[in-house]
């Protein structure tokens, strides 16, 4: 089994995981008393003199206790999606897989999902050259005997329409029944479609807000890591 190598480019002379273990424990202890997550992270981070990037990692990895159980229950096994309809949170999945392929740190978060912690506050500058990530996702999905696959992209991100067309051609090349489309309200659409009991859709995402609103979730980066024998990083 291969261990995920940690990128230390942004943490010269230090191990980000080791440095964050104690702050993570402190934050979790405080959250059990019902304090708000982001205020708690800010308080502990200031006390521990953490950088903005280190705070970002903690905000991605640590999840408020009241959300953990429900999110874990929604996560479905990688091998239990046969003959199901899957809707992907396009940029969320592709950018996460792109991070995995670039050997960026991938973290096992408190709610059981894998998340990358690339330090970006928008997808615009990261949404180029996603073909390798797309091929990795489609190769996995082509082996899963899914009923259908759809990619939903945020239309407000530059060239999303072109990417949707490229994805449609790729889907056809892989012999998968599916589609790709854009929306100005992508997050709302994912929550609406994934929460509809009649459609019984699986949503592929690691976005906690979306997970909280849908019925079943597939963690594709976790599936790819399991297949490749890669262990995520853990703040325990």
Automatic annotation (TrEMBL):
Pfam families: DUF434 (PF04256), DUF5616 (PF18481). Residues 79-223 form the DUF5616 domain. Residues 19-74 form the DUF434 domain. Coiled coil: none annotated. PANTHER family: DUF434 DOMAIN-CONTAINING PROTEIN, DUF5616 DOMAIN-CONTAINING PROTEIN. This is Conserved protein. The lineage of its organism: Archaea, Methanobacteriati, Methanobacteriota, Stenosarchaea group, Methanomicrobia.
């Amino acid at each position: 089994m291969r261990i995920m190598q940690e990128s230390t480019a942004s943490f010269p002379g230090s191990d980000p995981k080791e440095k964050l273990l104690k702050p993570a424990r402190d934050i979790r202890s405080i959250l059990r008393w019902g304090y708000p997550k982001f205020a708690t992270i800010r308080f502990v981070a200031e006390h521990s003199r953490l950088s903005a990037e280190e705070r970002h990692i903690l905000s991605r990895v640590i999840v408020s206790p009241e959300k953990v159980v429900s999110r874990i229950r929604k996560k479905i096994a990688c091998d239990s999606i046969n003959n199901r309809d899957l809707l992907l949170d396009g940029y969320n999945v592709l950018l996460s897989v792109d991070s995995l392929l670039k050997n960026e740190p991938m973290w096992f978060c408190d709610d059981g999902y894998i998340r990358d912690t690339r330090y970006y506050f928008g997808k615009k500058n990261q949404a180029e050259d996603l073909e390798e990530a797309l091929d990795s996702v489609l190769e996995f999905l082509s082996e899963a005997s899914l009923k259908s696959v759809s990619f939903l992209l945020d239309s407000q991100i530059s060239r999303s329409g072109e990417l949707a067309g490229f994805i449609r051609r790729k889907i056809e090349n892989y012999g998968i029944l599916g589609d790709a489309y854009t929306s100005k309200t992508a997050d709302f659409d994912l929550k609406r479609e994934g929460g509809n009991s009649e459609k019984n859709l699986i949503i592929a995402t690691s976005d906690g807000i979306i997970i909280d609103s849908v019925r079943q979730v597939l963690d594709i980066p976790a599936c790819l890591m399991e297949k490749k024998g890669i262990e995520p990083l853990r703040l325990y």
